[in-house]
Amino acid sequence: MIRRFFCSATALWLLALAPAALAQNNNDAQTRNYAEMFLWSDDVIGLIIIWVLLLLSATSIGYAIKLTLQYRRVTLLPDETRDELENLLSEKKYREAIDYANSDDSYLGKVCAAALNEAANGFSAMERAIEESGDTETTRILRPIEYLNVLGNIAPMMGLFGTVYGMILAFQQLVASGGSPDPAALAAGISTALVTTFWGLVVAIPALAAYALIRNKIDALTSEGLVIAEELIHPFKPGAKRSSSSSRSSSSSSESSSSSASGARPQPQPQA
Question: Which has the closest alpha carbon to 53: 208, 129, 160, 180?
């Protein structure tokens, strides 16, 4: 009796585990099929193209993250640089301001250094220095970002190369079989064509999107940097001090006249 119960319980336990084991085997087979579908090709050239595109995908993502962290507001337009230059110029410590700007490696520091070094040549020369230095520094900053643009344009071409190559393999198989090809062999060439196209798009779409976003961000920050630099050199503009002093004197004179008018007493009118 006990033996029969034990055998029945064992049989039920095995029957309960059988669906789970079959499902696990199916999941493993499906996982292998997905891995082989997207990461493997029976053709050597197709396999090389797939793994080169995988390498380019990882490279573009890592490079985009690096550029995003490198070109931020805190690195291009640091508040410390702006505050320090503003304080030095307001205190008329021009030599200290020039030395500080020359030692600053940020975009704002380089643009302000170019302007302050032209202070002896007049305000117009300072404005030209800001424009020229801004263009030079913007070009220097944008140059590394072009690699994302290159990756985004090369990857679809490599994917297209794999597409054409896979279709050539498929049609060669069709010709070699006399019009009745082996479906598995025919599908291998078509699979190579589609998988290489897939990975080409996987590389190109994030790379081009990151390129556009980072470039627009840099354009906005550099334009803001030029505005800040022009505000910092505004005290060097001819007539800026005179206009401010005249405005102050006019305001003081208006205040004095209003006070005198308010303090004057009306004279009594003679009676008839």
Answer: 160
